[in-house]
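[agent] plan:
  1. take the single chain provided in the ticket
  2. run structure prediction with default settings
  3. attach structure tokens to the ticket
  4. add a short note for the reviewer (M.T.)
[agent] executing step 1
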Amino acid sequence: MASEAAKLDSTGTEKSDAPKKKGKGKLIFIIVAVLVAGGGVGGWLAFKPKADAATAAAGDKPAAPHSAALYYKYDPAFVVNFGGEGSARYLQVMVEAMTRDAGMLELLKNNEPAVRNDLVMLFSSQDNATLLSA
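[agent] step 2 finished; step 3 output follows
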């Protein structure tokens, strides 16, 4: 019975009948890691924004990252009335726009009437509860 419990080879060490797994777990882990990394890189390359093509199509040079801020103040202030619960409600708002591109500043100046109209429509469509909330 002792011979059945432990089988010894000619050197006196114990032999087992089950084959040893040498590196199969590591190999599978490495293959999965390479596939995941490759999928991530492929997804990034497929969906990254193409900023160079967009700026070339527009014909504009992108603004320098450290250029000075340019402000445009919409003067006079916006004064709008909006619907209230049985009483008149008024809102006065001072608005300034900031850009780092001189061309955009000119665009804001040239289109001020349209921008003012859209902002008046936006401000007047608000309700009292929304404006009083944080």
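[agent] step 4 note for reviewer: The first strand starts at residue 7 and ends at 8.
[agent] ticket updated
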